[in-house]
Design goal:
Elements lengths: L7 E6 L7 H11 L3 E6 L3 H4 L2 H8 L17 H7 L3 E7 L1 H9 L5 H8 L4 E5 L3 H5 L1 H12 L3 E2 L3 E4 L5 E5 L3 H12 L8 E6 L4 E4 L2 E3 L6 H12 L3 E6 L11 E4 L3 H11 L5 E4 L6 E3 L18 E3 L3 H11 L5 E8 L3 H11 L4 E6 L11 E2 L1 E5 L4 E3 L3 E2 H19 L1
Parallel strand pairs: 1-2, 1-3, 3-4, 4-5, 8-11, 8-13, 11-12, 13-16, 16-17
Antiparallel strand pairs: 6-7, 9-10, 14-15, 17-19, 18-21, 19-20
Helix pairs in contact: 1-3, 4-6, 5-8, 9-10, 10-14
Bound molecules: flavin mononucleotide.
């Protein structure tokens, strides 16, 4: 299951050279369980065939206002009613002008005019066309109608020019589509999230670390953005892409993470500590690589700063402290350990998970967590994708935020 499962998306394709790119978007959306219906303008059909889009979407493609097999059903009105979101991608300058002026001279523009639901417009065109005051004014006008506009990317265009105008990539589009469907529970909140492992070097070639991949923390960052929050992510080294719209501060060691968290704390209204911070670090870091040859080597360790504990202590002293969420990744006595940590570290909420299982451990795409809040309320969340688990965590956070007010 995904937030997109069974959602009905009407995809309007217009006459842009980028039309071929949305064929992949349709495949990706269908993989997430979306139901896609495609409408193409006459110009779009010059760039990509309706046959391709019909095969990929699994549905007939609509191309003309008067071309329908069953005109008595008034296709433009039916299509306008029968979807949860209208995505226009790529949106040509011509179609954007039509939308801005309320023209209804083709099927797609008429559907847009007859739709009362959310509309997401993804412009793609030559950068001079995009920057022209007429196009910019039209974009401002459609924004004023409440349409979402996904800024195009900058880069080299098919025409050889460089600048803004390339169709945004799928990750940005997916984030915007998910945002259209997510509850805006975190609107106005500034969420500070830590994620990933830390590395504690003991010579220039080696470090102590753990297998955290950062997937849970990055899923929290992406979904907080979808629910309307401003998001700052403080991340240890991971192989993950920063979610669209998220400000990311990269750190390596626990000490760097501590400094970054404390520097960002003032702006935050919610802090989630999802990082797997090394509890210990080598007492000394050798300036040169330790040579092999000795049969045994011992490595004295000293305790790292306990960032969560420090935050909990600050929370005790400050009534306006951000809502504080910790994670307890345990291999045994999960609930007992989680409850102890919640109390000891003075948290609002703890997310307890079993790092032993293959479906819930480090690197897994799924998680099964128990949420335990400051009032003793416990919720067992079933096995879900990390993205869905993150949404469930935000639902509980939103409830606790509402209790605080
Ligand atoms: C090769 C070629 C590429 C084009 N690429 C774009 C484009 O990327 N964006 C755009 O706004 N118009 C582009 N156009 C112009 C549109 O196809 C044209 O304005 C058309 O009328 C758009 O109609 P529609 O909005 O009904 O699809 C291109 C035209 C040609 C011939």
């Amino acid at each position: 299951m995904s937030l997109l499962t069974d959602k009905k998306i009407l995809l309007g394709i217009t006459g842009s050279i980028a039309a071929y790119k949305v064929a992949d978007w349709v495949r990706a959306l269908r993989r997430e369980g979306c139901r896609i219906t495609v409408v193409m303008t006459e110009a779009a059909c010059r760039f990509i065939s309706p046959l391709t889009m019909a095969a990929l979407s699994g549905n007939p493609v609509h191309t003309g206002m008067f071309a329908a097999e069953a005109p008595e059903t008034i296709p433009h009105i039916n299509l306008a009613r029968e979807h949860d979101l209208l995505v226009i991608a790529p949106a040509s300058a011509q179609t954007i002008a039509r939308l801005a002026h309320g023209l209804a001279d083709n099927l797609l523009a008429t559907i847009a005019l007859a739709s009362s639901g959310p509309v997401l417009v993804c412009p793609a065109m030559n950068s001079v066309m995009f920057q022209h005051p007429a196009t910019q004014a039209n974009l401002a006008t459609i924004r004023s109608y409440g349409y979402g506009v996904l800024e195009p990317d900058c880069g080299e265009m098919a025409c050889g020019e460089e600048g803004p105008g390339r169709l945004t990539d799928w990750e940005n589009a997916r984030q915007a589509i998910l945002t259209a469907f997510a509850p805006q529970n975190l609107a106005g909140e500034h969420v500070l999230i830590t994620a990933g492992p830390t590395r504690e070097p003991f010579d220039p070639a080696r470090f102590l670390s753990n297998p955290s991949t950062g997937k849970m923390g990055y899923a929290l960052a992406a979904t907080a953005g979808q629910q309307g929050a401003t998001v700052t992510l403080i991340s240890g080294p991971t192989a993950l892409a920063v979610p669209p719209g998220v400000r990311c501060i990269q750190v390596t060691s626990a000490a760097e993470m501590q400094a970054a968290v404390m520097a960002c704390l003032d702006a935050a209204t919610i802090v989630v500590k999802a990082a797997a911070v090394s509890d210990y670090r080598p007492a000394e870091t050798q300036p040169h690589k330790i040579k092999k040859g000795q049969a045994a080597l011992s490595l004295p360790l000293i305790a790292n700063p306990d960032i969560l504990k420090e935050l909990g202590e600050r929370r005790r002293k400050s009534p306006n402290f951000p809502l504080l969420v910790g994670f307890a990744a345990e291999s045994r006595d999960h609930l007992k350990e989680g409850a102890r940590k919640l109390k000891e570290k003075n948290l609002d909420l703890i997310v307890i998970n079993d790092i032993g299982g293959t479906e819930t451990g480090f690197g897994a795409d799924t998680n099964r967590v128990t949420l335990l809040d400051r009032n003793g309320t416990q919720e067992d969340v079933p096995l879900l994708s990390k993205e869905e688990t993150a949404h469930r965590i935000w639902d509980t956070v939103a409830r606790l935020m509402a209790d605080n007010r």
